[in-house]
Amino acid sequence: MIILENINKSFKNVKVLNNLNISFEDKKITVVIGRSGEGKSVMLKHIVGLLKPDSGRVLFNDIDLNSINKKELNELRKKFGMVFQDGALFDSINIFENVAFPLRQHLKLSEGDVVKKVISALNDVGLSGIESKMPAELSGGMRKRVAVARALILEPETVLFDEPTTGLDPIMSDVINNLIISTQKHFKYTGIIISHDIEGAYKTADTIAMLYEGAIIEKGDAEKFKTSDNPVVRQFVTGSMIGPIVI
Amino acid sequence: MDFILRYFEKIGLFVLYIINELGSLIIYLWNCILSILRYSVNVNNLFDQMAFIGMDSFYIVGLTGLFVGMVLSLQAYYAARIVGVTYMIGPTVALAMTRELGPVLTALMITARCGSSMASEIGTMKISEQVDALEVMAVDPFYFLSVPRIIASMVMLPIMSIVTSLIGIFGGYVVYKFFLGLNGAVFVDMIYKYIKLSDIYNGLLKAVFFGIILATISTFKGFEASGGSKGVGRVTTQAVVLSSIYILFADYILTSILF
Ligand SMILES: Nc1ncnc2c1ncn2[C@@H]1O[C@H](COP(=O)(O)OP(=O)(O)OP(=O)(O)O)[C@@H](O)[C@H]1O
Ligand SMILES: [Mg+2]
Questions:
Q1: Is residue A21 part of a domain?
Q2: Which of A44, A221, B80, B144 is deepest in the core (most CB within 10 A)?
């Protein structure tokens, strides 16, 4: 179980996370929704220790991320996969090597096994025959999918997706959503997905949470969101300009 | 009056900045050493960097050595002719190259060529979250990016410094024999007579230090990048300027200790 406890985080004078409390259940998919600029990516970076909270704790199976040293943190991180919002592919190596990177760093596989795994991972995200291309030669959506393949290749215990379907066409979005669902069924990871795509969230999520003004204002299953009487949630899920959210 | 004060204030601030950076650099270098102890060295990246700093820099470093050696020979002739000791031109060129110009010029050229690219490469990785991605994939950025560059630079600088010195001496010889029309054998014999092994060792030891300095500063500056392309440009400039200053400063300190 991953728990964020009373997290506060400001950049300069701007408060981004305001006493944020949320827990992510093991082996379930939690989708966090919220408006652009609300601090969703910032929240995700706290979970893997890329950002440190000004106050509050991040607990991973009861281990406080702040209380462990760098080496222990690295051991912990081996259990994580992460898709960055902009992909964060290594731009100096080709697609094949990008996806193979975690394998080469952490497992001692034969070259044949690496090739097999990488090709199949790329196939799963609908990309084949682009192994030798460089990241700069791909479209944004293709890069995103390579990032998904890279995040899943070590079959981690926890996978964080920062907007995995943003920038994809509707069909590809569905492919990625289904890939997340099927891989999660298959190797039972804890999935944390950031998304704006409310339909996709209904489809993939066991739990949905909404981040608003630095805190979680609603958490529950899809049904709860569809029928929520919180006006902020209602406005967001219906995608209306009119409502309590100031634009 | 006021503007003079302000001028000194600026100098003071600059000195403070240099010293302040020194503190951060020492901490950074210490972290790199810790990372070697924890994760050892990434051999693939090390060899890539050694090729980049060594083989790929051959022409620029060789050309620098050649011209400096040739100029030295000419300048030494100008002075030596007055007192009639033109046979000392060989040792003058050789000593200047091995003790001083070989290591320093190599270090400055490699800073311009490789230090700048270390800073901008790591800087770009930093602002595009590639460094974050490395960290999340449980790969220590010191292990993957810094340490290979620092060790490669430390190993290759003395080697490139030998190259520079040798080519410089060769350039001096060519000018001595063909341009000034003096006896080439004297040039070589006098070098053997006056140059000691310690001159060469100490020059190489300097080069080792310069290598550590330039790669440590350049990689460190890369990690400091923030913002966008402007941020990368800024740290690249800082890397080259700071490295050059520290190299010249260290050169003075080392020379006064070693020789
Ligand atoms: N490194 C940083 N330095 C300064 N401010 C930052 C930094 N990272 C994020 N912020 C600020 O924090 C706020 C939240 O950013 P964040 O990227 O988490 O938004 P988000 O919810 O992920 O938005 P989006 O859906 O558009 O990706 C923004 O106002 C942003 O300006
Ligand atoms: Mg974001």
A1: yes
A2: A44
User: Do the domain assignments include residue A84?
Assistant: no
> Are A122 and A34 in the same domain?
no
Query: pTM here?
Result: 0.91
Choosing from A98, A126, A155, the residue where a domain stops is A155
Please name the residue whose Cα sits nearest to atom 28 of ligand 1: A37
Same domain? For A73 and A169 the reply is: yes
Ligand 1 atom nearest residue A38's Cα: 21
Structure token digits, residue B211: 């290598």
Chain A touched by B145 (CB under 8 Å): no
A11: contact with B, CB 8 A cutoff: no
- Nearest ligand to the C-alpha atom of residue A162: 2
Q: Provide the H-helix boundaries in B89-223.
A: 89-95, 102-110, 116-127, 130-136, 141, 147-174, 184-194, 197-223
Contact B109, B167 (CB under 8 A): no
Residue A101 contacts B, CB cutoff 8 Å? yes
Mutate to test the pocket of ligand 1, among A8, A18, A20, A42 (most ligand atoms within 8 A of CB): A42
Per-residue pLDDT of chain A (247 residues; tens, 9 = 90+): 999 999 999 999 999 999 999 999 999 999 999 999 999 999 999 999 999 999 999 999 999 998 998 889 999 999 999 999 999 999 999 999 999 999 999 999 999 999 999 999 999 888 999 999 999 999 988 999 999 999 999 999 999 999 999 888 999 899 889 989 999 998 899 999 999 888 899 999 999 999 999 999 999 999 998 998 899 999 998 888 888 887 7
Nearest CA to ligand 1 atom 26: A36
Clarify whether residues A25 and A140 are in a common domain.
no
- Among the atoms of ligand 1, which is closest to the Cα of residue A43? 18
Q: Across the strands, what pairs with A5? A: A57
Domain check: are A206 and A114 in the same one? no
Q: Are B185 and B87 in contact (CB under 8 A)?
A: no
Q: What angle do CA A11, A12, A17 make, to 5 degrees?
A: 30
Q: Do A82 and B139 touch (CB under 8 A)?
A: no
Same domain, yes or no, for A176 and A75? yes
In this structure, are A162 and A239 located in the same domain? yes
Residues A166 and A219 in one domain: yes
The answer to whether position A85 is within a domain reads no
Nearest-neighbour CA in chain B from A78: distance (Å): 6
Helices B147-174, B197-223: axis angle to 10 degrees equals 140
The CATH number assigned to the domain holding A59 equals 3.40.50.300
Where in the sequence is the domain holding A143, given as residue range(s)? 90-155
pLDDT in tens, B119-166: 999 999 999 999 999 999 999 999 999 999 999 999 999 999 999 999
Looking at the structure, do residues A58 and A169 belong to the same domain, yes or no?
yes
Last residue of a domain, one of A109, A133, A155: A155
Long-range contacts of A180-183 (CB under 8 A, 24+ apart): A180/A29, A180/A204, A181/A29, A183/A124, A183/A152
pLDDT digits over A63-96, tens only? Answer: 999 899 888 999 999 999 999 999 999 999 999 9
Mark yes or no for CB contact B138/A74 under 8 Å: yes
Over residues A211-234, the pLDDT tens digits come to 999 999 999 999 998 998 899 999
Do A149 and A130 meet the contact criterion of CB atoms below 8 Å apart? no
